[in-house]
Every structure is written in C-alpha cells, then in structure tokens.
Write a structure and sequence with these properties.
By secondary structure, the protein is mainly α. The protein has one domain. The chain is about 55% helix and about 5% strand. The protein has helices at about 1-15, 25-35, 35-40, 50-60, 70-75, 80-85; strands at about 15-20, 20. A two-stranded antiparallel ribbon has the order 1-2. Strand 1 and strand 2 form a beta hairpin. The longest helix has 12 residues, at about 1-15. It starts with a helix and ends with a helix.
Amino acid sequence: MRVAFGLGLVLAAMTIGTANAQVTEEQQSAIRANCRGDFISKCSGVPRGGKEALQCLQKNVATLSPGCKPAVSATLPAPGAAAAGR
C-alpha cells in the first residue's frame, strides 16, 4: 500500500518534460489508475520521485500490462518530434 500511495504522490506532483512533451493531469491520472503493479514489478528499485519513475515506465513500455501501456505510451514523444525540433 505504501508503494501505491508513494506512486500516486509522485505522479500527482509530476510536471516534468519528456523530450519536448509535458505530462498532463489526464496522463498522470491514467498512469496512477493503471500502472501500480507495473511500477512495483518493473521499477521497484527506482525512487518514487517523479522523473525517474516515469522514465522507468517509459523504458519498459514494451512489456507493460495492457492497461498501463497506453497510459505510458501517451507520455512518449511522437516519432520524429525530436527531429522536428531541430
């Protein structure tokens, strides 16, 4: 329960930029609602402090559960977005 509560606080406070994208409140809510188990199983050694937690989930996006994967995928920059910003 402590991990889930910590993840909720982390994601509620998260307003980090991922590449050039801002994580919205809706995306944070979707991650909170769908990714607790994935965070515990794939990112248990990662501090529940925002940027690192999201980056861990993003790094593991290919292996996330069906409920979590689309929530995390929505926070990833669109293909070619980095090239467009150059």
